[in-house]
Amino acid sequence: MIIQNRSATLNSMSMKLFSFAALVVVACCASSPDSAETCKEDTPTQAQALLQAHRAISYHDGKLLEKTSAVVGTNPSGAAASLDEAGYSAVADRCCLSEMRQFIERQAKNLNLDICNDGGLNGLVPFHTCLKGPKTFAELTSTLLSESSQKCSWVASAGTCNKLPDEEAELNQAGYAAVVDRCCQAEVKHFITRTAKNLNLEICDPGGVTGLAPFHHCEKEPQTFADLTSTLLAASTQKCYWLTKGKCEPLPADCQGFVGGGEGEGGYSSDCTCHMSKTAKFDFSIATVTNNNLGGKGPGSGPEELRYGNVGTSDKGEAFDLVVTTLGAYGRNSNGKDENGIKGAFGKINMNHGSSTDFRFNFMLPGTTTPLMLSEVHMAVFDIDGGDGKGVESASSKGYAGYVTDSKPSIVASRLPDGRTKFTSGGLTANVPNPSDPETLDQAMRKASVMFFYVNVTGFDLTFSIDGGTWDRNLFFAGVSSLNDQCEK
Q: Does 427 lie in the same domain as 321?
């Protein structure tokens, strides 16, 4: 079915589909070590302990949107983005550490520089993503060139990287004292990493090394090799660990926000890949609408909500209801022909043209108001289209761990003052074909879709807007999406 403006005959209607399925979410806005280390012999750089953080969102107005369309619309990866301001902005907007790392590595090579030590690179990356930035391509280039001229630097002119003395230092008190005496944090961090490996410990979060280094450095009273060993072993046994004797695993929800808490929020790694292993299963085709009074607009008369009973199960097999409420003004068609509820494999919500509504999606134990935390939730918004005076659609959210689009989307990402990331129709296609099955998207449908990822949540907020136009639209959401093909099993 092609999305069209709704006419008086009611035979053509515009429809909006968005689906959500649960996935293991990788928190792409991961924390990392401190910024690039100058490691001057006389003025050593102060290391900063790792702090988990939410995305820093900056303003993006309508005037910038047209410019951003060319930049962000293609949503290139760090390995493919152009080495200029446009490419930098597009990669930074993806809020993914691993992709920005690739971009920085490429720019260093473009400047005829070699990365001598990953620690400095890891420290620089967060300042050029949503975690602590972003900045500009010019600033990135300036930093790389400046750092390459410093003594004991992590980046240097091609072919001039010197082997760090700590690579030759013995892992004992004599070697420890020799490294500390050089008063170079890069070397201290590398010595700590070698010591951890020697103890058969796996470092899950480099930020832990960054936070520990100043305590074994000239900036503070140096300790001993025995103290270092004891600290590493003790840290590996903590609930909220940054290194472990076993395999690095996602940390408990209450470990989020602590120093050295894992590369990503909740301790997930920063591979920026969604996973299917903890996906909550949704199936609207067997769900029941047990209350239908969203925003108090009826047709039911119960609580002002739209409740889908037994719509899915968590990764632990727990059944749950999906309860949708509004957080502000909401309007829909009142002719009785476009009711909210279920249509085939999709849930359905109707909205007026020229309006914007904040929706809250909550997961609750069946028939109750008891929240249920889902390990991973993936919400996909489909068919973000519009243009040619027919209304422009957009969807926004915040608090997500990451998002996925087609490699060459037709939608444009922008940042809003209140912390939301918004995806808007690029105006290239007024009406994208309407999917009949959320798992069979053609290329045009994929290009007009975005999937937000959330970790350890009992719910999330989504705003959907229709700018202009003359007819109401139906929003359809389902529990699965063919965009899952980008996720690991």
A: yes
